[in-house]
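Minutes, structural biology subgroup

Action item carried over from last meeting: produce the structure token record for AP complex subunit beta (Timema genevievae). EB confirmed the sequence was re-checked against the source entry. Recorded below for completeness.
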Amino acid sequence: MVHSHYLLYSSMGQDKDPDTHSVSIGLWSVVRKKSMPQYQIALATDLAGLKSTAMTDSKYFTTTKKGEIFELKSELNNDKKEKKREAVKKVIASMTVGKDVSALFPDVVNCMQTDNLELKKLVYLYLMNYAKSQPDMAIMAVNTFVKDCEDPNPLIRALAVRTMGCIRVDKITEYLCEPLRKCLKDEDPYVRKTAAVCVAKLYDINAQLVEDQGFLDQLKDLLSDSNPMVVANAVAALSEINEASTSGSPLIEMNAQTINKLLTALNECTEWGQVFILDSLANYTPKDDREAQSICERITPRLAHANAAVVLSAVKVLMKFMEILPSDSDFVSTLTKKLAPPLVTLLSSEPEVQYVALRNINLIVQKRPDILKHEMKVFFVKYNDPIYVKLEKLDIMIRLASQSNIAQVLSELKEYATEVDVDFVRKAVRAIGRCAIKVEQSAERCVSTLLDLIQTKVNYVVQEAIVVIKDIFRKYPNKYESIISTLCENLDTLDEPEAR
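Output recorded by EB:
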């Protein structure tokens, strides 16, 4: 999901793989897996855990042998429950390693009629994997799903409605409506929160059906639920639907009552629920300074959260509300001081999270440079930083450069100009020129640094330095003509048109 209207980047997936941290560079955007909506990430994590739990014994991962499918079919139809469960585990193990066991679909479906929760979970996992390729066979499971949605055990009710939502077969969606409607009003909050997410999944399959059946209104009603987990999932589902919707009007009506409900749920829901709630709060415009300050006070504790996504979402809300508050107020001054430590802490994370944090910080510094004006050292490049982190740090260093810290900045930039990465060296040399243009009092020192680099006689360094000096000449005409002779001495070594 990429929200082009969002204020900050955020790491939204539970997975820690590189894809989770892939960044769409756009004004105030959010980072997450493009191929997987948030509710699917959560589901995938659950199922991954289920697979690992069920498949801990290596005996299930036997090599393919002749007649294996026939043997499994026989075991699946065995009257003994233990034999049947072992057979389903073998089927899931084969499916996990990429073997085609779709031929066993009717036999596995027959195993759904059981009170054993572990076996039911495994069968549901199989159905989610093969229902799309066997839509006609998947219809066989509908009656059991509907029956399970009325089971006395809330875990089974929730599992049934969740699985039905994950089976992306048009023929099944019409059968899902009535069980889903009941589950949205279920007495157990676990079932209600699962059903809320299921509405978003159903909307992804058939948006018109969701609107016609009145599920959106039921979701909005869940925003007033007594359970914070239900509220968080309702917000998450409405956010997903709002993003996919073409109507353009927000689905969550933000008023004082809704805001109070969201802030109450914020303290008790999961970290990913907090992210969705905070993102929704960012879309709210307080009616006056007092309300803005009150909301900020309740959100500020989130800055100390261990999850980077929660921290960045909280910063997003605070940054927006600070624009409403008087800039010279003591509250804004205190809030400004509180924003720096959590942002600096994020720079101790893994490179992907650092990059997301740096993209946010870059934008924050453009709006409020005073937040991080005393934190220049944390943006100094480390030798083992990936190039994408180095370049972001370089850009922020220039934005934070001032008369008080320019000597420190130039010393660092001169050091970077001796590194082995040619592209980074060029960027570092250009950064010296940008400092000269930004901080007029430092121009002479910057020119002196550039002349020192020209004396190194390193071809690409010399050429980049000359290009940069050209910009300084334009900014300060008739001020540094004395160095033209030095530039001319290196004329023969120039082979790039821009440098010539």
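Discussion: The domain at 253-400 is CATH 1.25.10 (Leucine-rich Repeat Variant).
Next step: EB to file the record with the rest of the batch.
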